[in-house]
Task: structure prediction
Amino acid sequence: MQDQKEHWEQVYRTKQATAVSWFQVHATRSLELIRSIGAPLSADMIDVGGGASTLVDDLLGNGYRNLTVLDLSGSALEVARLRLGASGECVSWITGNICHVDLPIQKFDVWHDRAVFHFLTTPADRAAYVRQVLKSVKPGAHMIVATFAPDGPEQCSGLPVARYSPEALHQEFGASFDLLEHTSEVHTTPWGSEQKFVYCHFLRR
Result:
């Protein structure tokens, strides 16, 4: 796992945050799904693998204040912290591996993950991720997970990924979660290629 951490640190040390394949000027689909939940502005939210993503900027801009951003790469988080300046002081920034980091018990009302889960290519890592969700989200909490679709890329940033249909992704999380809705997105990279994503919105029972 240290190798993975070094991989992502190297990515953000050697590339501009706007030059990586997953960059979005605005995480529009994620923001739409979060808004559709109707969570109050006081809701506790975590963006898993948020790194340098601009989602936290837009969440702050929409009035949400209890935000946590977690990423394996401290360099990625530093990009976001510097970009936000004083407005990011209310954000909780966590550098750690989602499979092993110590998260609070039943804290989060909304769990968001765009493009972390599909990097977990072993059953052990996927099971560890699911345990983290079950530990740290409240009953009745919402979970939004976006991965590459079945016809999406087979690799990202030189690493293998797993691809999912909504049904297959639901199966990974099991009976503790209801699949409320799913949608698709064709993401265009900074150099113009297309990546097909699936977004799933779950409710924890």
Summary: The first strand starts at residue 45 and ends at 48. Strands lie at 45-48, 67-71, 92-95, 108-114, 137-148, 155-156, 159-160, 177-188, 194-204. The first helix runs from residue 2 to 14. DSSP finds six helices and nine strands in the chain.
